[in-house]
Amino acid sequence: MNEIEERKNFDELLGKALRPVYEPSDELNKKILSGQKNSEGRSYKEGLRKWYILPKAAVIAVAIFCVGSAGVYAAVKALKKPVVTDHAISVGNEDYIQDDAISNTEEPVTTNIISSEVGTDENSWISKTVSEVNGYTTIQYIFDSYSAAEAESELGMNFTKEYALDSDGASYSFTEGPDGYSSKNLSASFVYNSGYFTVLQDKTLSNIAEDAAYSIKLENTSNERTYEAASGTEFYLVDEIISEEDHEKTTTYVMLSTDSTNGYISFTQLSEEEIHEVLDTINID
């Protein structure tokens, strides 16, 4: 499968992003629903994470393939302190955070590419794809600059320093479902020194429980710590360690959640000092 086909598959998966539930049935309350995607590309493999909504009595799981997007909040906008369990980082109502349920989730994904087109000189984006995933429709735009994606989505990290995007570009998506649910999402992956970091920010626009909990599913969690950035924002860092052939790979995650948006940033092959350098340059309005 080539890179373009991989991108299309990602477009389809992203349509499941942050799916909500109204008055779940008894059967649904016993299930965890999730999406899956495998990819050969580096940024795809590193960015693929399950992002869960755990509203009311139901536990709903969805996959967000992260090409990137995250950040620091201004001093007046505090980050929510996450709850760290064996297989997840979560925020929200702790009554709905069930580590065993989060760590054991599978759901078949039915996807359909409705249309795709390449941008012209009149567009700020370079490609547009409309897809349907399990009944949820997503319009995704790819940009060759993060600032252009920020302007279109009205989301983003407002970096105080310019970083180089990887070859996948920046992604802005708008998702809506038949139940009135809608959300928008901005993600990107950036090359930094000898490693890279991916960032994601998502905003639910309608039809989500007020007491929902949000989780990022990880293989494992370790080395919890905090870092106070130059802005005065305190970040909570958590490591995930994966064994790969003859070495271990450590990825550091920081959940970024406020009253209006949710998201995270992950760092791979970057030192603690380099992670701090990036966190010092992020500012979410």
Labels describing this entry:
alpha+beta, 10-stranded antiparallel beta sheet, 285 residues, 6-stranded mixed beta sheet
How large is the radius of gyration? 18 Å
Total helices: the number is 6
| Helix/strand class | alpha+beta
The quaternary organization reads as single chain
Mean pLDDT: 75
β-strand number: 16
Determine the N-to-C terminus distance. 39 Å
What fraction strand? Answer: 35-45%
Largest sheet: 10 strands, antiparallel
Biggest sheet strand order reads: 6-7-8-9-10-11-16-15-14-13
Order of helices and strands: HHEHEEEEHEEEHEEEEEEEEH
Helical residues, percent: 10-25%
Question: Can you walk through the features of this model?
Answer:
The chain has 285 residues and is an alpha+beta fold. It is built from six helices and 16 strands. Strand 7 and strand 8 form a beta hairpin. It is globular. The N terminus is likely disordered.
Which helices and strands, and how do they pair?
Blueprint (H helix, E strand, L loop, with lengths): L2 H12 L11 H4 L2 E2 L8 H6 E7 L4 E7 L17 E3 L2 E5 L6 H5 L7 E8 L8 E7 L2 E8 L2 H8 L10 E13 L5 E11 L2 E12 L6 E5 L4 E7 L5 E11 L2 E9 L6 E7 L3 H8 L6
Parallel strand pairs: 1-3
Antiparallel strand pairs: 2-3, 2-12, 4-5, 5-12, 6-7, 7-8, 8-9, 9-10, 10-11, 11-16, 13-14, 14-15, 15-16
In short:
The chain is an alpha+beta fold and 285 residues long. It has helices at 3-14, 26-29, 42-47, 99-103, 146-153, 272-279, and strands at residues 32-33, 48-54, 59-65, 83-85, 88-92, 111-118, 127-133, 136-143, 164-176, 182-192, 195-206, 213-217, 222-228, 234-244, 247-255, 262-268.
